[in-house]
Amino acid sequence: MLLAVGGVISALCLWLALRHVSFGEVWKSLREAHWVWLVPSLALTYLTLAARACRWRYLFCEPERVSTWESTKALNIGLMFNNILPSRAGEVPRALALARVSGLSKVEVGTTIVVERLLDVFSIAVAGVIAWPFLPHVAWIRALVIICAVIFVGLVAAAVLLWAFRRRARTIAERLLRRLPLVSDERGSALADSLARGGRIFREPRRLALALVLSALVWTITVLAVLALFPAFDLQTSMSNAWLIVIATSLAMTVPSTSGALGVYEAAVLASLVAAGIARGPALSFALVLHAVNFVPVSLTGALAAWSYVGRFRRDEPSASVPAP
Length: 325
What we know:
Layout: H1 2-18, H2 23-31, H3 38-58, H4 68-84, H5 91-102, H6 106-131, H7 139-164, H8 166-178, H9 185-198, H10 205-229, H11 239-252, H12 264-275, H13 280-316
Helix pairs in contact: 1-12, 2-13, 3-4, 3-10, 3-13, 4-5, 4-13, 5-6, 6-7, 6-9, 6-10, 6-11, 8-9, 10-11, 11-12, 12-13
């Protein structure tokens, strides 16, 4: 059902992106693009991945058990699978890969990924509210900012409640887990411990503040990667327009869609540029190239990381010819 809904949404967004567009203008814009500007945009995209990996490692209860290199590889695996699977299913192999190489609980690793997603959503919401005065006065942008404000208030309220009930949160989680079928009291207690470890940063204000700073850094570099691609198409836009693209695409990609958010991503970028006064032809060209910058290189590095993990796991498996003790 979710796949069908995602397909319909992607098809609708792709139709919205392609209608009223002159494909002759799109082709001309691509043909006359200054492709040298791909270099800084790609470099900043990979710098964003490095910043994400460092932040993810910092979210763990014991960061020393997770190397930056391993978190980077696992992150790339997750992004690759997110590009080829719908509904952000890549987070599952990402968690499994890092759990195996680090020896940490899969639940703890998965919880840090949830925390990471919450930090991202919060950062985008804050950016949307701050950028509001500098964005074009268009109805859908006002609606987008209202959504950001609601998300901001909701997450702050949730954080306050979590802090207020921090001493009882683990007990409540353990009671709920024990009510699940096939979960023994001992297993419920272990799962509650893993959840508590994965979300421990919410009980440490100083570490949480630094995690928010790292999140701001991640998204600032992401915006710079978008900004670096503007000269490739001679787009006369500003930093606020780059922030609008990042905010719009980030929130748009949370809705169900096909693999790689095809159609949804293009529609969000095109709408952001058209609101800034850019013609639809060059805007669609930019959207296609920006999507490719965030899709192809990350997928290739993710495939290499997955290949290295497969080889490593095979070497770690005991030989079938050697009897188990």
